[in-house]
């Protein structure tokens, strides 16, 4: 009788271990996507604001100062972003058009940052928009032009 119970106990333990392993593997596979839901929620709002040309909405989703490519300086505040909005979002690349299909690129080594690349008129992905997680959530943080 003891051998039968011991065998059954071993089978139950093995089954429990298999279920736990499968659950952990499943969570690991889904974990990054679940953890990054805030990125996709933010991206949906930011993208919609840029596509609509909603300068006030974009400014509300921006962390200042905003870093710009060499020679363009920085945007210190909302007023500067609004006055230079066209340069930032319709300079070498048309962000409103690009953001319609662009997807965030998440660096697993740095989960507090993500980027979105846009192509210029020649079809080269040269304009990179960067976003950072702040104490107040995700914010637009910078623009880089890899040609400059």
Structure, described:
With 148 residues, the protein is of the alpha+beta class. Helix content is 48%, strand content 24%.
Oligomer: single chain
Q: Could you list the spans in which at least 5 consecutive residues all have pLDDT below 50?
A: 7-35
The helix/strand class is alpha+beta
Largest sheet: 6 strands, mixed
Secondary structure: elements and pairs:
Elements: H1 2-35, H2 37-52, H3 55-60, E1 62-67, E2 74-75, H4 78-83, H5 85-89, H6 95-98, E3 105-106, E4 113-119, E5 125-134, E6 137-145
Parallel strand pairs: 1-6
Antiparallel strand pairs: 1-2, 3-4, 4-5, 5-6
Please give a quick description of this structure.
48% of the residues lie in helices and 24% in strands.
């Amino acid at each position: 009788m003891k051998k039968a119970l011991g065998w059954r106990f071993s089978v139950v333990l093995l089954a429990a271990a298999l279920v736990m392993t499968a659950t952990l593997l499943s969570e690991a596979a889904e974990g990054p996507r679940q953890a990054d839901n805030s990125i996709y929620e933010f991206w949906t709002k930011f993208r919609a604001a840029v596509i609509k040309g909603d300068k006030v909405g974009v400014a509300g989703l921006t962390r200042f100062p905003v870093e710009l490519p060499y020679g363009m300086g920085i945007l210190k505040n909302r007023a500067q972003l609004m006055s230079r909005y066209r340069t930032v979002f319709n300079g070498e690349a048309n962000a409103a058009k690009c953001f319609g299909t662009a997807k965030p690129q998440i660096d697993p080594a740095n989960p507090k940052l993500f980027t979105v690349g846009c192509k210029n008129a020649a079809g080269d992905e040269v304009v990179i928009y960067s976003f950072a997680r702040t104490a107040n959530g995700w914010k637009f943080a910078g623009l880089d032009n890899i040609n400059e």
